[in-house]
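Title: Prediction job returns without error message
Component: structure pipeline
Severity: low
Priority: P3
Assignee: unassigned

Description:
Job completed but the reporter wants confirmation the result is attached to the right record. Sequence as submitted:
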Amino acid sequence: MSIFSRTSTATSESFDAGTTAVEDITGEYTIDPSHSYIGFQARHAMVTTVRGAFKEFQGTAVIDSANPSASSTKLEIAVDSVDTGSADRDGHLASEDFFDVAHFSKISFASTKVERDGDDWAITGDLTIKDTTKPVTVVFEHAGSAKDPFGNVRVGFEGEVAVNRKDWGLSWNAALETGGVLVSVKVKLKFDISAIKNA
């Protein structure tokens, strides 16, 4: 049983079982944005969940299976690539009420600590949104490894974490007549990562 607390279920419960192309995934990797997902979920009017994703990002990872503490990762997200399926909502998120894209174009994450328990990897790091940096720990499940048709070795990881958006100055809200607020303060961040091993 994992020592880490994870809210997501195992990948194999929802999809085909993951594959294992390599036993040791140690190496340097580059995140493949076209096959990865970085998104978020928030409650709207406390009755439904609104989902969004960032379409443009880049990142790297160093994985050391034998010595996980030597592992590291860096990620940079283009804030203006946010997509919730609503142009009006995307515009509001880009405004000063939320991300203030005109002054803060990037969200960044840099790991400071990596721990491993079996297939679970707990990555702690500094998440910077606007002009605020706070520590966050995301528990990732190793979803498998594969060799794609182009000869690339890929590894997959899935993780999520709930955060308080006010911690990063994303505090806009509107009170509802029936009680509660229009947008939940707690937001769930979700990561589905496919990374290619560097040659």
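Comment from assignee: result matches the submitted record. The radius of gyration is 18 Å.
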